[in-house]
Structures are given as structure tokens and as C-alpha cells.
Amino acid sequence: MNYKKNKLHIExxxxxxxxxxxxxxxxxxxxxxxxxxxxxxxxxxxxxxPLICFAVKANNNIKILKEIGKLGLGxxxxxxxxxxxxxxxxxxxxxxxxxxxxxxxxEILFASQKKIFLINAESQSEIKTIVKVAKxxxxxxxxxxxxxxxxxxxxxKEITTGKNSNKFGLNSSEVIKLINYCKTSKFINLKCLSVHxxxxxxxxxxxxxxxxAVQKIIDKSNYQFEYIDLGGGMGINYxxxxxxxxxxxxxxxxxxxxxxxxxxxxxxxxxxxxGNSGYLLTKIIYIKKTGKINFVIVDAGMNDLMRPALYxxxxxxxxxxxxxxxxxxxxDFVGPVCETTDKFISLNSYQKLxxxxxxxxxxxxxxxxxxxxNYNLRLDANEILIKNSKVFRIRKKGTLQALLR
Length: 405
Known about the structure:
Number of strands: 22
CATH architecture of the largest domain: Alpha-Beta Barrel
CATH superfamily of the largest domain: Alanine racemase
Distance between the termini: 39 Å
Number of helices: 12
Structural class: alpha/beta
Mean pLDDT: 94
CATH class of the largest domain: Alpha Beta
């Protein structure tokens, strides 16, 4: 993304031209950025050679998943719907991991029938359900057990998953008991120890604590795991403050861990793969000027992008056309939804804007469209992909007739 003669382009495609053709709000993805992210992730861990399973919960567009699969990644899914999406995108079942705390009997049966690589179990009851399915299908099912390491990911509390107050995984004593149970089972094959501590992590230190917690389980259980699933959670730079995860340090520690334990690694990245490749294109409907605030009302709402309303997530808001004149007054960029939380960002100053101008909300590729809704009976946004200087519509905007049915 860059400006040419003060006009914003994504992969050499003029943003205003895209908006003229597809309207607003529209989600727009850059294939080049997606590809660069995947290559960078692989390079960061080239001394480990992990199985990389993209977290489908971050972005479930099938055309996007197809591109991710073509670039060599598998899929991490948390529902039957996500599993179907991954399979429809031609991602190989032997590269699919099924995670999540609430898998139903029907979901486990479906996953077993599709012969996916691994089911990460998060409770004793779930393992018993897996055994029931294995008995019926008369085949052993590969599983992992998810450890809750009680490690603070030092991220937004709403997306922390590795503390003992979180619903995910099992504590160390429970994990040891279940390892012993699995050893004697004829119906399950315990291949993996799984762990995931949260999302948008920018500090490598919580990951090192996580590795220590995993090592303790391996030492106590004396069990040879074929795989260790280290989850994902690697953060991206939403604020342009140059703070980035120290991949080199994390990779070196994992390499030592692998040599000691003779095991393979699984990663489940989502945000770091797709986050900064997505943009939400929107248009200014009105500018409502009050004494202290200019309310910039755009046609995208919290139903289109939930993250700022859900946990005050930060997303840059930039104009499709740059101007030199600046207004030194607070600007609140808000949507049309009838909720006070329908606000994207507050800025103390901004360039001169006019009603009808186009605005771009950045870094929305992860947990953007997937968290959207039809609240206020608002329609789904278009989704488009820019690849090889061509624009493809990859999901069409919904219709009111279909929604009301």
C-alpha cells in the first residue's frame, strides 16, 4: 500500500477506482502482502521445519484459504464449518488440526470420517467422546492434549488463553493423568502436546515461559510426543511503533527444545499471516461538527469491524487522497450503528475531510470480516482480492431479501 501523487494504491490499483466499482463498505485483501507474510513466517523458522496450520478463525474466506493452501500451509479449525471451509479450499486433511474446547460428538465424528491429521482435546470428557467415535468408526484417532500453562501472554485480556482463569486446556496434573490414560487406550493415538497462550503477542518472553511449562510436562510424563503444537498468537504492528516479536530468539529456543526432545513442531498462526493484508474501504456519509469534536460518520459500522468496539483494538484510519491542510481538532471516526461503541478511532487532529471522501481502515485481514454481523439488519460487505494487478470479487455483498428470509 502506498500513495502515488497523493492517491492511495493497493498493489498499484487505485483505491478510489476499486470503490467506484464495488462500492462501500468493502473488504480488500492484498495477495502480495499475504504471500510475503507466509514467506517471512517460514523464513523465521527455517531451522525448525514446522507444520504451519493457518488459524481459519482469523479469516475463513474460501478463496483466501485456497491461496494460503497453495503456498504450503495447512489449517487449524475450531468448528465443523471451518473444517468444511478448509476442505473446500483443497487443504489436505493430513494438514488439518481441530482445536477448541467445545467440539460436539457430531463434529468429532465428521473430523474422524474426513481422516484429519489431529484433534487437540481439551478435557477428559472430550477424550471419552473421541473414544466413543473411535469405537464406532473402528479406527484409532490421532489426538493431542492441550496444556494450560498458566502463562500471561502480556496482551489484551480478552484474547489471553493461557492463564488458569481461562477456559482453555488442562493444568499440568490433569494432563499427566490423561497421558497415562491414553497410553493404555486401544482407540486413540496420543501424538501431540498442545499449548496456546493468546493472540497479538509482541514479546518473546511469554513464549519462553510457555516452552518451560511444556518441558516440565515432558519430563514428568516421560512420554515421547511426536509433535508439540505451540499454537500461534504472533502479533502484528497495528500502531507503526516498530515493536515486533523477536522471532530470532524464539526460533533459537525452539531449536534447542527440538534437539533435546526429538520432536516436531506445529504452529497455528492467523493474524501474522493475514492481518496486515486486509483493508476495509468505506466512505464518509456526514461530518457532524460540534464544539469539541468532528464526528466523521462513515458507512462501515461495528457490524463490519467489531474489534474496536469489542476490546478497544487500534486500527489506523487513512484517507484515499492526501491533502496538505490539517485540522487541529478531535476527530471521532464512527459508524452508523445505533450504539455508542460504534467508533473506530479518536484522533486529536486530521487532514481536511469532506463528505463523500473515501477512507481506509487498515490491518483488518484477521478477525475483521469473520467477526462481522447483520446487526441493525445491515448487509454483509463485499470482499475482494487484488492479485497480479487484477481485482477479483471473492465474496459478494449480501441482499436484504436473502437476509430477511
